[in-house]
Specification:
Helices cover 48% and strands 12% of the residues. By secondary structure, the protein is α/β, with parallel strands linked by helices. An eight-stranded mixed β-sheet has the order 3-2-4-1-5-6-7-8, with helices on both faces. Helix 3 runs antiparallel to helix 4 and helix 8 packs parallel to helix 9. The chain is elongated. The two termini are 28 Å apart.
Length: 326
């Protein structure tokens, strides 16, 4: 599902829509960063240690993470020493360029594999928005003209199956489901069988929310991965880790474990509209080496938008959207 990440599916918001929604969600983040830097910067006195300390503090406060904040501050220190200007706009420009460098150095999203069905697992902890994200991705796939099958493999959370069924009905998409408490692997097997028989292009699997510390649940996820690989070569082709942006750097602990145990290949960051700490994206890129593929900025079906690194960096620092050349 990453082949059209730079474009827009029919009915999906374009680049300007991404910037408007993400900037709105990151308003508190860039306001806090700029307020702290504006207080520290004294025009004409240079970027002294107090300014750099304020920068590191502002980045940590935005949940960039201490390691990433330190790396960015050091990069700014090197750049600022030779800067002719020593005001807030100059500092913001340097920081923006360093953030863009950081993101550019991370792995690129993989191209969509030539597989039918293309199997995507959605994993994460309870409350991260996995089921809603599954539905939103299904909507994007349908809008792109691909056939979609949903699998309700979250058989543990009360109401999860019915929640996905409601979305499936709304989207007019088929859903493979068992009763609550059933074996998730059995649901997956039936969904894989159905997808192959119907020639379905995309199979989206909503897995049960699980704490990264629960070994038995992680082993169950590993079992599901083995079943998928046995039934469809290369499956799961994509494993998306759904992270709640409001958890901030605590989400990094979860993410590391899911990368190890579930083979996460990318991140969907939800609830970015309700977070004052949107810097978590930078920590994901630098410390986890995972690309952020989508961000959730609201409850509506089209409030899941493909991640645009450059426009994110600008939104994080309160810059205006870049104008694409004619």
């Amino acid at each position: 599902m990453t082949d059209d990440s730079k474009g827009s599916a029919p009915g999906a918001p374009g680049r300007s829509g991404f910037f408007a929604k993400v900037r709105r969600g990151l308003f508190m983040t860039h306001t806090e960063i700029l307020e702290k830097l504006g207080t520290a910067v004294k025009k004409g006195l240079g970027f002294d240690e107090s300014v750099l300390e304020a920068l590191a503090d502002a980045l940590v406060g935005a949940d960039v993470g201490s390691e990433t904040a330190g790396a960015l501050t050091e990069a700014v220190r090197e750049r600022a020493s030779g800067s002719e200007r020593a005001d807030l706009p100059a500092l913001r420009t340097i920081l923006l360029e360093e953030i863009e460098k950081l993101i550019a150095s991370a792995p690129r999203p993989a191209r969509r594999a030539d597989a039918s069905p293309y199997v995507t697992f959605l994993v994460g902890v309870n409350g991260s928005g996995k089921t809603t994200t599954t539905a939103k991705l299904a909507g994007r796939e349908k809008a792109a003209g691909r056939s979609v099958l949903l699998a309700a493999a979250d058989t543990f959370r009360a109401g999860a199956i019915e929640q996905l069924q409601t979305w499936a009905d709304r989207l007019e998409l088929p859903l493979i489901r068992h009763r609550e408490g059933a074996d998730p692997s059995a649901v997956l097997f039936d969904a894989l069988t159905a997808a192959k028989a119907r020639g379905t292009a995309t199979l989206l699997v909503d897995t049960a929310g699980r704490l990264h510390t629960k070994k038995n649940l992680m082993e169950e996820l590993a079992k599901m991965r083995r079943i998928a690989a046995r039934e469809v070569p290369g499956a799961p082709h994509e494993t998306l880790l759904v992270l709640d942006a409001t958890t901030g750097v605590n989400g990094l602990v979860q993410a590391r474990r899911f990368v190890e145990a579930a083979g996460a290949t990318g991140v969907v960051l939800t609830k970015l509209d309700g977070s004052a700490r949107g810097g978590i994206v930078l920590a994901i890129y630098r410390e986890l080496k995972l690309p952020v593929l989508y961000v959730g900025v609201g409850e509506a079906l089209d409030d899941l938008v493909p991640f645009d690194p450059s426009e994110y960096a600008r939104a994080l620092l309160g810059e205006e959207a870049a104008v694409a050349p004619a």
